[in-house]
Structure formats: C-alpha cells, structure tokens
Design a protein that fits this description.
Elements lengths: L1 E3 L6 E3 L13 H4 L7 H10 L5 H4 L1 E3 L8 E6 L5 E6 L5 E7 L2 H37 L4 H34 L3 E5 L2 E6 L2 E5 L4 E3 H5 L1 H13 L1 H4 E3 L15 H16 L21
Parallel strand pairs: 3-4
Antiparallel strand pairs: 1-2, 4-5, 5-6, 7-8, 7-11, 8-9, 9-10
Length: about 280
C-alpha cells in the first residue's frame, strides 16, 4: 500500500520507514500501536474486529497447511516464518529468520493491504446497489436526471475539497514544525500549536502567557518563520529538552495512532471475500 508524505507530497510504500524523497519519518512506523511481536499482531487483529482466520485466510501464530493462506509462526529452531500458501497448495516463504519485528511487519503490511482491498470490494458492491436503484428511477425522468446531475456536482466538489486538504493543508501545517528562538525564549511549533520551554518542561504558550500574549507572539513568529527558526530536529547541544519526549508529543501521537488504526477497523455488516485475492503470486 502506498502513502503520501505529509512534508513533500511524495508517495511511497508504507513498508518504508522514511520518505525516500525528503527523509521524513513514516508516521505508521512511529505509532506506538504498531505490533512488533506475534502476540501483539494477534491483539491488533482482534481489536480491528476482523473475522476469523478461516474467513480472512490470515493465520497468525499458526503453521497452516491448507491452500490459500497467509501466516506467521515460530518454528522449533526459533526462526520466524512468514509464508503464503498459493491456490495449488505450494508454499512461498516471504521471510525466515530471527528478527520477529521484521517478520511481523511483513505480515502486518500485507494484512493492512488486504483490509483496504476488502473494504473497496464492499464499497463497490454498495455503489452497485445504488446504481441499480437509480437506473430504475423514482418519479419522472427529468426529476431523476436533475437529481443525478446534482449528485454528480456534489461528488465532484467533495473530491476537490479532499484533494485540496490532502495536498495543500496537511503539508502546510507540518512544514513549519520545529524549534524557534524568540528573544531569549525557546518555543516549539507543532502543526500550528506553539509550546514554550519554561526551563523545566514544555508547556502550551497560551497556558503560560495567556491568550492575548500568545496570539501576538505566534502572529509575529508566523509572519517570518525563517527569522526565528532554529531547527526541525533536537540535538544534544541544546540547553532545552527534546519536545518529542514531552507529554504533549505522546498525546498527539496516541491520538494519531488511534485514528490510524481505525482506518483498518472492520464493519461487522461487511463481507470478506478471500476469493478475490491473488493466490497465484508469491505474495
């Protein structure tokens, strides 16, 4: 599955830890909710409300012998085996080795791809039902035609809004993240929110200085980011703590993790059709 970099807009495979274009970290590899062991992957699977292994054909912690199956298990030699059993029963080994985290990530990424694929299949089915109902028509033909035209216009506008948000808003919010020096004060900007170093900890600027002062300071900083900019990343020569170690960083990213994982939650009303999976390829 490909993702888009929040910083430069480049698209790349979600299995990569960093954007190959600008080096920005892949958010999915920073999430504390990312499974690193077989047991954690089992828990992640369960929390997504996914159907049974027999339905999805993903066997976590099992050496499943039947055809049409993905899986991971630990063998008697302590190796972690990631495999795919093809339609004819032939087994393709994706990974065999001692690195459990790497092995788990291989199956984890493939499972996420399949969830997205299955969601798309269900979405297409629903669209097919709507299309079928629309073709039968309700009321006179002119009324149906006008409604269809209006629906198309609304759909086009929605797509434009999504594209604008995806390609312009998010990168703009993220591109000024980093450390700033304002007079003798050190601040950190995260997606437009300003934090102040009070010599012991990072705190929201508005909380420490009050809303009026915070508004004036942020306005001045944002009028010319470059004048006050120190760096995007913390280094050990700084006299202040790393913002990434603050409670606010954890708060932001725990929310990001929740939102990220919810993209893969399964609706119990949807159906899983493993027959649509390519069972002839090695992976």
């Amino acid at each position: 599955m490909k993702i888009k970099c929040d910083y430069c807009g480049n698209t790349y495979e979600d299995t990569q830890e960093k954007c190959p274009s600008c080096g920005a970290p892949n958010p999915s590899h920073q999430n504390s909710g990312k499974p690193k062991t077989i047991e954690e992957l089992k828990e992640w699977y369960k929390n997504r409300n996914l159907p049974s292994y027999e339905v999805t054909r993903f066997f976590i912690g099992e050496d499943h012998k039947g055809p049409k199956a993905f899986g991971i298990y630990k063998d008697e030699n302590g190796d972690f085996i990631v495999y795919k059993n093809k339609a004819d029963g032939e087994r393709a080994i994706r990974y065999q080795g001692k690195d459990e985290e790497y092995a788990v990530n291989e199956l984890y990424q493939r499972l996420k791809d399949e969830i997205v694929h299955q969601k798309q299949l269900n979405s297409n089915k629903r669209k097919g039902v709507v299309s079928s109902a629309s073709s039968k028509g309700f009321g006179n033909k002119n009324s149906g035609s006008k409604l269809a035209q209006l629906g198309n216009k609304i759909w086009i506008i929605a797509v434009i809004v999504i594209l604008i948000n995806s390609f312009l808003v998010t990168p703009f919010k993220n591109r000024h993240n980093g450390y700033y020096q304002y007079d003798s004060n050190v601040l950190y900007n995260y997606q437009g929110d300003w934090y102040y170093w009070d010599y012991t900890d990072w705190e929201p600027l508005e909380q420490l200085a009050g809303p009026d002062v915070a508004r004036e300071v942020s306005k001045e900083l944002e009028s010319d980011y470059d004048e006050y900019y120190l760096s995007e990343k913390w280094n050990s020569s700084y006299s202040f703590d790393n913002w990434d170690n603050s409670s606010y960083y954890e708060e932001y990213h725990s929310k990001d993790t929740s939102d990220y994982n919810s993209d893969y939650d399964w609706d119990s009303n949807d159906s899983w059709d493993s027959g649509g999976t390519d069972w002839d390829s090695d992976w």
